Amino acid sequence: MAVRTGQQFIAGLRDGREVWYNGERVNDVTCFPQFAASVASLANLYDLQHDERYRDTLTVESAEFGERIGRAFEMPRTHEQLQLKREAYTILARSTCGMMGRSPDFLNVMLAALAAKRSFFAELSSERADAIVNYYQFVARNDLFLTHALLDPQLDKSKLRHEQSDPAICLRVIDRTAEGLIVHGIKRIATAAPYADEILVWPFPPSFQPGEEAHANVFAIPMNTPGLKVLCRPSFANPGARHDHPLSSQFDEMDATVIFDHVLVPWDRVFLHENIVLLNRMYRETRMRELTAHQTNTRLEVKLGFVYAVLVRMAEAAGVVARPEIMELLGEAVACVEVVRSTTRSAEQQASVDGENGLLYPDLFALQAGRALGPVFYPKLIGMLRRLGGGGLIQLPVSLSEFNAPISADLERSLRGSGIGGQDKAQLFKLAWDLCGTEFGARHELYEMNYAGERGALLAGVQREYGRKQYYLDHLDHFMESL
After folding, report:
1. Which tens digits make up the pLDDT trace of 428-442?
2. What's phi and psi for 315, nearest 5 deg?
3. How far apart are CA 330 and CA 318, in angstroms?
4. What are the pLDDT digits (tens) for 359-380?
5. pLDDT interval class at 350 (50, 70, 90)
6. Separation between Cα atoms, residue 88 and residue 367, nearest integer Å
7. Residue 133: exposed, middle, or buried by beta-carbon count in 10 A (0-12, 13-18, 19+)?
8. 154/348 Cα distance (integer angstroms)
């Protein structure tokens, strides 16, 4: 079962997992009102793999596996493979308008990156290296959907994890047995945890200090593991008529706190444990950034392009699309889209082969530009939506169903725009409001600002690791010498 259908994905979620929402346990996450639409949207992504229009892009016959697997699991060795991976990411992102930042392809490509660097985990032991490779193969063969949990609870940031008033809060190893590690504590923010198949845990940021060894662990377990509890934030989904909530009715990704209550992690699911030196090196040396940023920048391109298109339609509806100041605004939006679009293609063109494993990695520095600018560009475009929409974003009917009521003629007259009827304009503005005015929209703005980590630290890391820095310095130094 290397390539699942949507129904197979849904069936796999009825496994007795412990998920809590508003103080009550959820019996079936697949039909729970706050989750059902997102589960259906994810199931649709699995079904796309079987659509003849997309099958050969979203999946690939793998000589290594001897069967067809999802494209995200493929380890790229040619420029064509890198391009096909981007095209696969694009198809999936367009299906959700770029609104599902944790679609299955994200964690799947991360897992492939970790497995490709088997030698890194072998520094701890050959058993840990075997574990990561075997787990990658297991997930690929079963086409699973993973979530991950990186962050500790927001506690006293002036203290290390083991120095907190309650050191049991941050997830740590409390015992080792013949069967595996016993872990206890809390992780956040696990996006899509209520309806993922498994959870991959690795701590971030990679800044562990002596004394925090018990907290330095990387492992994966099924979501129905005994002792694992999922506590959900308030839902931002708007179940009901899709025309009234075009995005939030379909794509709200539930974020969750994950509680590990004396959870057993079998040894074959432990990839790194109690080693701060290796954990601090993992993010960089496994080269996961290159392969995951290739996916995230592609998704961001789709999302920015979608918002740009909404901006154009709003300007047309207002009859201002040709005004110089609006042309300037839209041109700035185009520049944002094209910069991010260019990062993936530039990274592919500048890709280089890793001599250790033979994989072709897209250029990190090109991709990092997109990761650094995305947190600026997305809020900028959302601000443009608010500017163009103005009060029109507020003065909308409660529901578009009102156009079937006795007041429909009044609504039509009061809402029509330039070359667009009142109902169509209301539909467009409801979409814009879902992007810039709802809790769903606010969550997405916050997500894009923070998903790659704190921006200042990200930029400092870009400068610290910039591999072309000396090239430009040499040019400057040569010029200065010539003076």
Report:
1. 999 999 999 999 999
2. -65, -40
3. 14
4. 999 999 999 999 999 999 999 9
5. very high
6. 18
7. middle
8. 37
> Minimal CA–CA distance to 203: which of 219, 191, 192?
219
Closest-CA residue to 185 (of 236, 234, 137, 219): 219
CA angle, 293 then 299 then 304, to 5°: 120
- Min mean pLDDT across 155-164, 231-240, 416-425 is at 155-164
CA distances from 339 to 301, 304, 343, 351, 372 (A): 9, 11, 7, 18, 11
Contacts of residues 125-130 at CB distance under 8 Å and 24 or more positions apart, as own/partner, are: 127/267, 128/270, 128/271, 128/272, 128/273
Helices (H) and strands (E) in the chain, counts: 16, 14
> With contact defined as beta carbons under 8 Å apart, do 279 and 203 qualify?
yes
- Give the 3-state secondary structure of residue 21: strand
Cβ within 8 Å of residue 269, ≥6 positions away: 131, 135, 180, 219, 220, 221
Res 1: pLDDT = 61
- For residue 408, the 8-state DSSP code is H
Q: Does the pLDDT value for residue 344 go beyond 90?
A: yes
CA distance 299 to 221: 27
pTM: 0.96
The pLDDT of residue 414 is: 96
DSSP string, 183-228: EEEEEB--TTGGG-SEEEE--SSS---TT-GGG-EEEEEETT-TTE
Contact 366, 466 (CB under 8 A): no
Contact between residue 58 and residue 48 where contact means Cβ atoms under 8 Å apart:
yes
Axis crossing angle, helix 364-389 with helix 439-450, rounded to the nearest 10: 150
What is the chain's Cα-based Rg? 24
Kindly state the DSSP code that residue 127 receives in the 8-state scheme: H
Read off the pLDDT of residues 394-421 as tens digits, 9 standing for 90 and up: 999 999 999 999 999 999 999 999 999 9
Angle at alpha carbon of residue 452, lines to 447 and 453, rounded to 5°: 95
Among 251, 388, 252, CA closest to 333: 388
pLDDT at site 332: 98
Helical H runs in 319-363? 324-349
Euclidean distance between CA atoms 297 and 67, whole angstroms: 29
Give yes or no for a contact between 140 and 110, defined as CB atoms under 8 angstroms apart. no
Measured distance CA(16)–CA(226) in Å, rounded: 10
